[in-house]
Specification:
Shape: globular
Strand content: 15-25%
Mean pLDDT: 93
Helix content: 40-55%
Distance between the termini: 30 Å
Number of strands: 13
Amino acid sequence: MTYIQRSLLEELKKWIGRREILAIKGPRQSGKTTLLEMLSEWLSASKTAVPDHIVYITFEDRGELDAFSQNPKDFIARHIKDGKRHYFLIDEAQYCRDLGQKLKLVYDLFKNAKLIITGSSSLELKNQTGRFLVGRMLEFELLPLSFYEYLNHSDSELAGMYRKWNGKAMSLASRGKAFEVKMSSDIFNQELLKHIDLYVRFGGYPAVVTERGIEEKAVLLKNIVNNYIDRDIASFLQITDTIKFRKLATAIAASDGSIMNLEELANRVGSYFNELTRLADVLEQTYVIRRIGPYHRNLVTELKKAHKVYFFDTGLRNSLIENFTGMDKRPDAGVLAENFVLNEIAQHAKVHFWRTTAKTEVDFITEGASLVPVEVKFQHFTEPTLGKSMYGFLNEYKPPNCMIVTKDFWGEKDAAGTKVMFVPIGYL
C-alpha cells in the first residue's frame, strides 16, 4: 500500500528497541491508525519482528476493549507465543478506563512486550497515564501533515529543493543561526506559493490532502468538524452544550491570530468566564486551537498574561467560518499566513509573541541559543524595510538576528545592530 510519508515514523524507529511505552497523541483523522500500519509493515520488512509477533488492537472494538479492561494480564498473555519480543499496537487507547494502571501492570509483568499506543486527546491520555507511567512512557504528537509532508506527497522534486532552504530558515527562526540568503531571482517561489495557497486553504488532514477535488475537500473538512467537534470531543469529554461549544470554536476561528479575550467571547457565545475557560482548554488539548503566551522581561510595560490563539490546522479553521477562497482574494490572508508560519516554527521551538501596553507588537519570539523575533508580512517587498514595532523590539533586546517572513522577497538589512533576514514564506 502507498502511504503519505510521515516524519514521525523515522523518529519512532529510533525508540522502538527500548523498553518504554510509546504514546502517539494527535487529533482524529491525523493518520495515527495509518502510522501504526506503516510501523507494522516496517517491523516486518526490516525483520525486527515476524508478523505473528506484531499485534494490532483497537479499543474502538468493544470486545477487545472489554477483554483488556477486565483482565489486561490474560489479554496480553494470550498473544505471547514465545520469549521473543512482541509488539502491541493499541489504537484509540483513551477509551480504556484506568488505562495508566493497566499499562503499568503489563509493562512490569511482560518484559518482552513493547507497547505502542495512540490517543485522540492529549487531555485524556495525560489524565489516565500520568502518575502511573512516569519513566515508563515516551510521548509523541502526530498532527495533520506539515507543509514539507504535504509538499513531498504533492511534488517530491520541489520538496527536495524546498527542504534545503527550509532547514536554513528554521535554523534561523528556532536557533538564531544566520545564513546567506538568495539574492538572485527565485524561480521556485511562484510554484511554492501555489502550494502554500492550497495547503493554507484546506489544511493538512491526510484524507483532505489526497482528495483532488476542491468541493470534495470542503465536504471532507465539514465532516471532520462535525464528527470531531460535535461528536467526539463533546461526547467523550462530556460537554453537553454542543451548540455553545461549536459557537466558541467558530468565534475563535473568526478572530484567529488575535489576543484571546475570554470575557468578550463569553458575551458572544452566551456563556460565562469559567465555563469558557474550560471549553478553550478542551479545544487546545484536543488539537483544535493552539495558544501562545507573551514574552516579557519588563513587568511594567509588557503583557504578561494574555494569549494569542491560532489553529493547529487552517483548513479546519476555514471550514468553521465557511471560507475557502484563495489567499489573493481574502482580507484575512495575512492571518492565515501568520498561522501557517507559527505551525511550522512550533515544530522546532517554543514560540511566544511580544506586545507592550502601548500595543507595540511583534508576531513571534523564539528562545533558542538566542532570542529571535519573527514578523510575518505577507506582501510584496521591493527593498528590505522594517516597521516601528520590530525596531522597538530590536532596540529593547538587541538580538543578533531577526527574521521577516515575506510573500516573495529575499534580502538582508542591518538594523540597530541586528542582522535582519527577509525570507519568502514558501521556505518556512
